[in-house]
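Q: Fold this one first, please.
A: Sequence and structure below.
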Amino acid sequence: MILRPKSSPRHHSTLTGVAPLTQVSAVPTWIRRDIPNAQSLAGKDVEDVALAAGAAIGALDAVVRRKERWAGAWRQQQALLAAAVTAKQAGRVEDESALRDALLLTKPGDDVGPAGRMLLAWRRLAARPAEELLTKKSLTCVREELGCAPDEEGVSDLVDDLRQLSADTGTVGMLTGVFITAERHGFGRALGAWLADALLAQRLGWVHAVPLFGAEAALGTSARSRRLAAASVATSVGSDAERIKNLLAAQARAALRAVDLSAELGRRADRLLAVSPKLRAKAADTVVDKLLSDDAIVASEKIAGMSDRGLRRLFDRLVELGAVRELSGRPTFRIYGL
C-alpha cells in the first residue's frame, strides 16, 4: 500500500502528488490496514486478501456510481498514470508530462509515437462505454496501440475466450484467468491489465471502466506464471494461490489509489465550480465542462469559437483563482487541468 508523508504538498503537476491518504478519503482504516504489501503478502491467506480486495472494490464502486461531473477527468488521469507505467515497463523514457505532450501538442491526424499510442489505449478504456471495449474492433485497435503485432485470428480467439471466461467463472477466477489468457495468446502483461479492467467494469455494471491494473508497476510476470499460461485457465486458477494473492492485492491497492484520487479531484472540481460564476468569457461554461471531463487542455485548443488569446486569458484567470493548475511548467505551449 502506498502512503504519502503528512508533509507532502496537496497540489503537484503530476498524478503521483495527491494529498496524504489519511486526508483525502473516508475509506475505513481496516481496509487500508488489511491490504498487504509485497513483504506481508506471504503471510496472508487467499481468503483474507480477497476480503480486503472486495472491500476496496466496494469503495471504488461507490465512487463510480455517484456519477460525479468530474468523473471523466478522474478516469483520464487514471489512464495517464497507467500509460506512464506501461511505457516504463516497455523500456521507454516518457513520463506523464511527456505523454500529455505527445497527445496534446500533436496535430490531428499526425502520429503520436509509440508512447502516445499507449496513452490512447488507456484513454480508450476510460472513455468508451464498457460494453464496447471487448469487441473485435476495439481489441484490434488496443493491441496495435500497445505495440502488439497484428493478428486478426488471434483477436477473434481472444474475444471468444474472454466471453467464456466472463460467463463461466467467478470474480476471482475471472481476474486470474484474464491474465493467463492474455499470456497464452502472447499478448503480454499490459494488454492483460487492460482486459482485466474492462472485464471488471462489465462484471460490476459500470458505464465506463476505470484504469486500475495498468498503474500497478509491481505487477510482473514470473517464470511460474509463464509456465501456468501453457495450462488451461481452469487448472491454473485453482492451483496458483500466490498468483491469485498478488493479483488481488494489486487490484486492492489500485482501487484505493483511484478512490484517493477521486477525493482530491472532487475538492479541486468543487473549487472550479465555486469560481465559475465569476468568469465573464462567453464560452466559460464550455471550458469548465471540458476541464471536468478530461485530464488536461492545451491553451491553443479551439473551444466554442474562442481565440487563443481569449482562452489563455481565461486560463490565467482560473489559475489566479486557484481553480486549475498549469501542468507543463513552460512559458509557451501551456497545458491546464484540475
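Q: Good. Now the second chain.
A: Here it is, same layout.
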Amino acid sequence: MHLSAVNQSIVCQEYLCPGRSVSLSVYVVLYVATAAVSLLTVCGNLLVIISVSHFKQLHTPANILILSLAVSDLLTGVAVMPFQLILLIESCWTSGPVMCVVFNFVTFQATSVSVHTVALIAIDRFLALSSPFLYSQKISPTVICIVTLFNWLFSLIYNFTLMFVNGNFTNVMCPGKCVYVIDGVSSFIDLLIVFLMPCTLIIILYTHVFVIAKRHATAIRALQVHNSTGSSKNRVSDKSERKAAILLGILVIVFLLCLLPYYICSLVIPYSNADLFYVRNVAVIFFFLNSIINPIIYALFYPWFQKSLKLIFTFKVFNKDSSLMNVL
C-alpha cells in the first residue's frame, strides 16, 4: 500500500481549494521549512551517492546496496517530498493532473525500491555472517549490481502494471485533488509485496543476524583466552562483519520505525475518515523522515563516509587518481 491510496472509484464533485487559513508569516515559514527539508534530503543523499560511486575502496556489496537506497531517497527528496509537503500545507493539489500521475508513480517506485533494498541489506548481512566463505566466494559487487538493477526493474514493471490495471493513467483527476484508484485485490497484493513480505523477512533475518553476531563475539573472546596469537586476521574480519551488521541494523531499525506508522494508519484508519486525517499526515511525515535520517546515520556511524565528506568538501575529489584515495 502506497501513499494516498483510495479503494473506490473517483467521483468528482465541485471542489475549490481552501484559502489560506494561517497568517502570512506562518505560511512563509512552512514553505521555507519545506524547501529546507527537501534540500537537506537531496544534498545528504547526493553526498552518499558521490562517495560510494567515486571511491573504489567503497565498491563493496554492502555499499552498493546503500547506494541504491540513497538513490531512492534522492528520488523522494526531488520528486515526492516537495509536492507532498505542499499538499499538506495547501490541503489542495495545485500542480495539475499530469504531475499528479508522475507524483504517484514516482512515490510508488521510490517506496518499493526502498523497502526491497532494505530487505536485500538484511539478506546481505545474514549471508556475510552465517556463511562467510560462501559470501566471499559468490557475492561480488558485480552480483549485487545485477540484483540491484533487477530490484529497480521489477519495481518499475510492478508499479506501472499496478497503476495501469487500475486505470490511473487514463482517469481524469478531480480539480484540486491528487489520488489514485486501487481495487481491493490489487491493494491486498500490494500490501503483501511492498510491506508484509519484505518487512517480515527483514525482522526475521536481522533477528538471526544479531544472534549470530553475539555467538561470534562469545566464540572470539573464548579463542582469545586460549590462543592470543593465532587467527588474528580472522578475528579482525569477523569483528568487521559484526560491526557492519550492527551499523546496518541501526539503519534497518530506523527504517522500520519510520515506515510502520504510515502502514498501520493505512490499515486502521479509512481514507474517507476526515476526522483522523491529521494522524495520517503525521504518519506521512514520519515516512519521509527516513530519507533525511539515512545520510545522518552514515555521517554519525560510518568513518568512511566522514573521510569521503572531508575529501569532497576540500575539493580533493577533483585531484588526479582521487578515486584511489584511502577512505577506510
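Q: Anything worth noting on the second one?
A: The radius of gyration is 22 Å.
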